[in-house]
Amino acid sequence: MPTSKEDVQALSARADAATARLAEVRHSIARSIIGLDDVVEQSLAVILSGGHGLLVGPPGVAKTRLVHALAVVTGLEDKRVQFTPDLMPADILGSEVLDQDADGKRHFRFIPGPVFCRLLMADEINRASPRTQAALLQAMQEGFVTVAGERHDLPQPFHVLATQNPIEQEGTYPLPEAQLDRFLMQIDVPYPDKDQERAILLATTGSEDAMAEPVLNAQEILDLQDLVRAMPVGEAVLDAILALLEQARPDRSNDQEVRDGVSWGPGPRAGQALMLAVRARALLQGRLAPSTEDVLALAEPVLKHRMALSFAARAEGLQLEALINRLAKAAA
């Protein structure tokens, strides 16, 4: 946090420069992605916060295309894993093989898996078994993997952007709560409206298909992440986040719907995610500090995969999204 007038001025200058660069990023993404402004903003906020994102939506709404565009504009080396029911943990992390040198001596050699990149696209993550889904846990949380007792560090920055089909679809497995909590945000990708779909059809079925262009690089991403953590957060925003978390937990909430209908609420990691995400959103919009409006805007994508309704509450028609938005308005 800045502590002097000079610190504030320096931070403001860094923020102004970052805002200009991020405007270039959004312009480049718009070449490839039509509409989805909120989705793009939330995805960029995930990267600026140093976290991982879960993109949820039906097939064909540009989830994969968006991740590829993000990899291009950020300059992050990316790899893609198509999750299937027969995918094994070693297919993601890598494995050791037995080699023999020219002298006949044998030794084990580690062959890195696709997780050794800066932006991993886990496509249709909920089509793999829970065992394979869990293989990403250590990498997402710790920034390294352990294979055969040996630690292997991942490059920095490291981000996972996973796509997920709606859980009601055939051949999908729900992600374990522990893994869901590792995702900074759950970003819902909706169908386009009629005007957007018209533009999509015209732009993508002709002789040329415009693609995003590189803007940033890995070091610039790390610098932007440092800037996000240096941004000040006012007491009003901090109080709003704390009030929201408390009211979303059934054992502490004063809200009867939460006490009766929520099976479990968000943990401290949710507060950490929201603190970072509101700063990132403010930077993306050209502001030096977040406001309670940012808390309102990001409460749902940060909290909804960290909470669960009871069976009785679902049967009565209680909607988790509506509940979170109501709690956020009351907290702000």
Features:
15 helices; globular; five-stranded parallel beta sheet; alpha/beta; 332 residues; Helicase, Ruva Protein, domain 3
Overview of this protein structure:
The structure is a single chain. With 332 residues, the protein is an alpha/beta fold. The mean pLDDT is 88. The protein has 15 helices and eleven strands. 48% of the residues lie in helices and 15% in strands. The protein starts with a helix and ends with a helix. The chain has a domain at 233-332: Helicase, Ruva Protein, domain 3.
Provide the spatial order of strands within the biggest beta sheet. Answer: 2-5-8-1-9
| Secondary-structure arrangement, i.e. CATH architecture of the domain at 233-332 | Orthogonal Bundle
The CATH H-level superfamily of the domain at 233-332 is Magnesium chelatase subunit I, C-Terminal domain
What's the SSE pattern? HHEHEHEEEHHEEEHEHHHHEHHEHH
Secondary-structure-based class equals alpha/beta
Largest sheet, strands/sense/barrel: 5 strands, parallel
Q: Termini distance?
A: 23 Å
Might you state the CATH topology name of the domain at 233-332?
A: Helicase, Ruva Protein, domain 3
What number is the mean pLDDT? 88
Please report the total strand number as a whole number: 11
- Spans with pLDDT under 50 lasting ≥5 residues? none
Supply the number of helical segments: 15
Shape: globular
CATH class of the domain at 233-332: Mainly Alpha
